[in-house]
Amino acid sequence: MNKKDFYLKKIGRRGKIDIWLVDGAKIRRDLEKDFTNFAEYYYFPIIPKYEFWIDRESVPNERRFFIDHLLAEWRLMDGGMSYQRAKEIANQKELSERKKAGDLEKVINQKSEFSPEKVHRRLLDKTKDEIDIWLVDGRLVRSAFDIGFTEGGHDLVYQYVPKNEVWIDDDVFAKERPYVLLHELYERSLMKSGLTYLRAHRKASRLEWRARHSEQILDEFFLKFLIKKGKI
Known about the structure:
This protein is an alpha/beta fold.
């Protein structure tokens, strides 16, 4: 893939590192299916060493958190630290910034508990098996429940997702939501039938990859689950 195909805009620079807004949908389709909200060289070597990539967001209100995370992670790994340890430290820094921004207060209910319902934005659809598909506030999910939440999730993987619910991150643009939903529903169906998360996730990733290159696969899957494609 040519660089200009997915680079959208240079949005900043930190020292000698250029920060690029990129078209994550194109990257996931044609270059790296596991690219999510952001990444840097030491996690994805396909990224030039002195660049940070940040996916364009449908709701662009988290870039400062992502940049702080990437700076911490990159500097620690550039100094020789393992990815896992660098990520843990970067996550703590990011969570601290999210707390300062007041995100946690937005999801606390009258019992002073984090409430999953507080992140619901809109019910998109319901499957034939009565699984509710919710568009959720991805920023609040990451701030209060799971900093690693990206694109989507469901109740059989994440304990904070209510029973019989699938969540779609509102940062995902409408044109890409169907592929994320396909992944989550197929993965969930495999886990319900007894597969481990790891095996189900791998199978779902392969199906998602194929669907991104074949509209027919997506249409047949939605028909199977009785989902109205236009509502997602």
